[in-house]
Design brief:
Oligomer: single chain
Helix content: over 70%
Strand order of the largest sheet: 1-2
C-alpha cells in the first residue's frame, strides 16, 4: 500500500485538491472553468513530459522555454516563407496552404530537437555540467529567436494554424498532451529505453557496468526534451496564430516545478510522465483557484514556491531515512 500511494501520490493529491476546491468555490467546479484549466495546462504539460525524462537521468534542462520560443518563431517564419502573395506590392497578403502549415510545424519541432541534441552532446561528449550547458542554450535560443524575428512578433498566419492550439475546441491540445504523456509513460514503464533511463539516473556507474549505454541514453533524453519543447512552442504560437520571440519566458521553471510536484527527484532515478502532467495540473489548479477568490498574484508565487520546497524537503527526508542520502 505504501508503494502504491508513493507511486500514485501526485494523482491522489490532484484529485483531493480538486474535490476540496470544488467544495470551497462554486465557480471552480463549473465545466467551463475546468476546461480552461485543462487548456492552459497543455503547453506546460508537454514541456514537463520532456523535462522529466532529463530529470530522471539526474540532469536538468533550463533551456526549454527559450527553445519553445525559437521553435515557434522558426516554424511560423517557415509558413510565411512558403506563402504566395495574393496581391502585388511589399505589403501584399500571403496565401498560406495547409501543407505550408504542416511543414512549419515540422520545422519548429525539429528546431527543438536540434537544440536538445546539442545540449545532450555537450553534456555527454563535452563533459560539461547540465546546468551550465542548458543555461547557455537558454540564452542562445532566446537570442536567436529575437535575431530571426528582429524582435517583432510574426503574424499574418492562416486560421488553419490555430486548429492545433484549440480554435476548433479546447480538447484538441488537451488530447494531444494526454496522448504524448501516455506514450512516454508506457515507454518508461515497459521498454528497455525506459529501464535504461531509470538505471542511468539511479546509479550511473552501476548502469555503465551493467552494459547500459549511459551517454547515449542521456543524449536521447535531452534530444526528446528539446523535441517536445519545440512542439510545445509551435502549439503556443498556434493559440493566437502569432509567434512572439519573447514567448514562454519562465516556462522552464514551471516545467521543473511540475516535475518536482509530480514526484520526480532532482537526484535522478525517480519520476514519471503522468506524475509530471499531474504536477502541472496541480499548479494550474492552485493558480486558477487563487484567481477565482481574488488572491494577489504575488501570493500565488509564494504558494507554489512553498509547495516545491516542502516536496523537495520531504523527498530528502524520505531518502535519508532509507539510507539513500547521507550527510557529507
Amino acid at each position: 500500500m505504501k508503494r502504491f500511494l508513493a507511486r500514485h501520490s501526485p494523482l491522489l493529491i490532484l484529485a483531493a485538491l480538486c474535490i476540496v476546491l470544488a467544495l470551497l468555490s462554486e465557480d471552480f467546479r463549473r465545466p467551463g472553468n475546468l476546461q480552461r484549466v485543462a487548456y492552459r495546462t497543455a503547453v506546460i504539460g508537454i514541456i514537463a513530459t520532456g523535462q522529466v525524462l532529463v530529470i530522471i537521468t539526474a540532469g536538468i534542462d533550463l533551456s526549454v522555454g527559450s527553445v519553445a520560443a525559437l521553435a515557434g518563431v522558426a516554424g511560423c517564419m517557415t509558413m510565411k516563407g512558403m506563402g504566395v502573395p495574393i496581391d502585388e506590392g511589399p505589403g501584399a497578403e500571403l496565401a498560406i496552404s495547409n501543407f505550408a502549415v504542416f511543414v512549419g510545424v515540422i520545422v519548429g519541432t525539429l528546431t527543438g530537437l536540434v537544440c536538445g541534441a546539442a545540449n545532450g552532446l555537450l553534456v555527454t561528449k563535452g563533459k560539461i555540467q547540465p546546468f551550465i550547458v542548458t543555461l547557455g542554450m537558454m540564452m542562445v535560443a532566446r537570442g536567436l529567436a529575437l535575431l530571426l524575428s528582429n524582435a517583432v512578433s510574426i503574424s499574418g498566419l492562416p486560421e488553419s494554424f490555430k486548429h492545433l492550439g484549440g480554435s476548433r475546441g479546447w480538447y484538441i491540445p488537451v488530447a494531444i498532451t494526454v496522448l504524448i504523456a501516455l506514450v512516454f509513460a508506457v515507454a518508461l514503464a515497459f521498454t528497455r529505453f525506459g529501464r535504461a533511463i531509470y538505471a542511468t539516473g539511479g546509479n550511473r556507474s552501476a548502469a555503465r557496468l551493467s552494459g547500459v549505454p549511459v551517454d547515449r541514453v542521456r543524449l536521447y533524453a535531452y534530444s526528446l526534451c528539446g523535441l517536445l519543447a519545440g512542439f510545445a512552442g509551435v502549439m503556443l504560437a498556434s493559440r493566437t496564430a502569432v509567434a512572439q520571440p519573447t514567448a514562454a519566458e519562465g516556462y522552464e521553471l514551471d516545467a521543473i516545478a511540475a516535475c518536482v510536484i509530480g514526484g520526480a527527484s532532482l537526484m535522478g532515478g525517480e519520476g514519471g510522465c503522468i506524475g509530471a502532467l499531474a504536477g502541472a495540473l496541480i499548479m494550474k489548479v492552485l493558480v486558477n483557484f487563487c484567481n477565482l477568490v481574488g488572491f494577489d498574484v504575488f501570493w500565488q508565487k509564494i504558494l507554489v514556491g512553498a509547495l516545491i520546497i516542502l516536496l523537495v524537503f520531504y523527498d530528502n527526508v524520505r531518502k535519508r531515512r532509507a539510507g539513500l542520502l547521507r550527510e557529507d
